[in-house]
Amino acid sequence: MERYGIPLDHFLIVSTIMFFIGIYGFIVRKNLITMLMSIELILNSVNINFVAFNSYLFPENMHGYFFALIVVAIAAAEASVAIALIINIYRRFSNIEVENIDEMKY
Amino acid sequence: MINFSYTVWILLIPIFMFLLLGLLGMKFKPLLSGVLGTLGLGVVMVLSYFAAYQYFFELPRLNDTYQQIVAANYTWLRFSDALQIKMGVFIDPISVMMLVVVSTVSFMVNLYSIGYMKGEKGFQRFFAFLSLFTFSMLGLVVATNIFQMYVFWELVGVSSFLLIGFYYERPSAVAASKKAFIVTRFADLGFLIGILLLSFYTKTFDFLSLTGPQGIEITRNLTQTFMGMSVATWALLLIFMGGAGKSAMFPLHIWLPDAMEGPTPVSALIHAATMVVAGVFLVARLFPLYSFAAPDALTVVSYVGGFTSLFAAVIACTQFDIKRVLAFSTLSQIGYMMLALGVSGYGGEKGLGYMASMFHLFTHAMFKALLFLGAGSIIHAVHSNYMYDMGGLRKYLKITHWTFLIACLTIAGLFPLSGFWSKDEILVAAYNHNKLLFWIEYLVAGLTAFYMFRLYFRVFWNKEPHYHHTPHESPLVMTIPLMFLALASIFAGFLPFSHMVSSDRLPFATETNLTVAIPSVAIGLLGILIAFLLYKKDNNTVEKIVKGLGGVYKTIYNKFYIDEVYLFVTKKIIFNLISRPVAWFDRHVVDGTMNGIAGITVLTSRKIKGSQSGQLQHYAFFFVLGAIVFALIFIYLW
Amino acid sequence: MTAYKIMFYLFAAMIIVFSVLTVTSRRILRAAVFLLFVLISTAGLYFWLDYQFMAGVQLTLYAGGIVVLIIFSILLTSHIDQKFTQAHWTKKIMAAIAALSGMGLCLLVLLNHQFIPGTNPPIQNNMTEIGTQLLSTGHNGFALPFEVISILLLAAMIAAIIIAKKGK
Question: Which ipTM value was assigned to this complex?
Fold first, then answer.
């Protein structure tokens, strides 16, 4: 259960803390790009979980490994689309504050 | 065996005409639509006559009895094998007779209307409605089952409503049409309950089985009673209530005089000759049931008929609107028919009243249509309904004068016009059965002669008022129906009616009872004489008599204040005690609940719509919280 | 305290500290650089676990690709020397409540759960094995997700171009 004296739980604790820091950032930050960064944090923490589970619990195959790879690819795709959106929003509103984008309220 | 399936066309042609004129009428020239409608009804009339000829003369009789034939029967509504509503054509002596009456009068009225309604707004609409009415009435008389009759009964009510309210710009016409509709609908409620009661116990709607031996047996042996009367009596009384509504029997008669707001041909067709006898026809149709299962109901029929005939005749003597006089006279004559049915027994000589009633229905349709069409011709000439705007018209309206005189003589029951024969049979039937009613009818016969000749002398003789323009005779298209109907009024009485229509469909012979006939003619002559003395010349005797009668005259003139009683009962009692609380309940409790629900919804949504802020981060916050709450629930509470 | 342990705690501390700095820094370019540090630290954790290929992907794609993309967009849309205003304190508290309660719940569950470690001998995770599994269609083959993700990337690329394209 331990590897070089480090239990699985420690990985999980690290990734959980990172995950909720990402959530905190997503709620607090006004700038769309910083919100995007928060999302990257969240995805990254999930990746740590995948990899750690694979390594500790199912070392005989590589499912977690590939899932992490796929998440990285999705993160790349998401980032590219998000940035395209952000640039478009910048063109329309001349800034990228999320609070200004509320046309779809009631 | 003769195939009667062509009689379906008697129904299909008028409804087709109605659809044609109703949908496309505005595209036609007025005259064309009138001619089309008339032609359609002409075909119907020929078909009816042909059917009557075949039925009475060519169709072989079974043991000398006229057969009852279901010429067509389509299932219209099918609920289950036991409960089916059919539509069809039922042929027996009275339906064939009614076919002849309805189609003849309809045709004559259509023809007449081409002249009478000329230049009126809605000419095409008028003919469409006439066709609709004819369709409904024909459907009613050939109904194979009581439900079909009910359906057409209501259709007749609707077309009557439409035609009374024909001049819908006129408030009085609108009020009259509403009154007619509401009063007859109210009566029809009784009819419907009666139908349901009767069908519930006999398990059939079909006339053939209802009035056959089996139906009679079932209704006779009903043991259920309600408030001391057997269910059969109740059912038949309720059905009679519907009939009384449509036939304007006391106390449901109030709509008929007001119905004269409609165009005069309509009055002739619907409110004199055909529709108002639907009630009589209904009782006649179910007569075996009345006779065997509920003689008490039949007694009620006879007294209601007798009272109405007297009551209406008295009022008719005081009215000045000529159409109203005729309306009350119609009431009176229908009362005669009801009375005749009421005093009749079943079978052969005992069924004399039944035969007399149908006979009178037949002759009355002819001479009353004639009277109304004549009145229409007079109104057409002087542009007024009121007697005091008329006088001395015999010089101007020659054909109208002669035909009107014939009609008056007929209704007064003078030998040998048709009215004499039919009225004589009724009097004989009453004489054999109930002396009180018999004497009432004698009195009514006298009154009838009096008020009809009051009308006649007042309009055609008497002093000539100042006419704005000289009255002129109506065009030929109007006088031809008058002449035809006059001929029918004269000669219809010579039909061997008892050989065609009888309660058990078995022909029998009648003979004139001189002890009854001679006094009745004498009373008629007496009435005419009094009218002659009072109204031939303008004199002030009438005013003196009116003054002498004082309050009595006023009461009669105001139709015994029956309308006022109705108004009092409905407006003061029903509205205040029932309608207003119900309206209050509806407005505040029922509507209040609904409005409250709506209000709460609006209020809530207004309050919570703030959460829909458009701020992405708020949504994210609530999303996370919600996810945590769900996680908690699933982990710890599940 | 072995060197491995020290390495792990160092990476863990760096991840947490730089994550916090990423979401609190008031200069956007600094935030991006802190994010880069977080990602590099994560790559360090992968190295620690002996997943070299994964760590390489993390470095090239995440640290190299995405962060550069983010920095580009920052340069396009923001002034470098602009400082963010502080978020309103109610918002901070709201976010803190959400994050802390979620974190508490997750940690509670994770730490109370007894994971069953794998007993099978570990697979050789060298590049040959990874390439074979990623493109094989049989047992343990990931050819279908690989194809799906490539189509997704293609779609994302097209979408990004169309969205960012100026006007019609």
Answer: 0.90
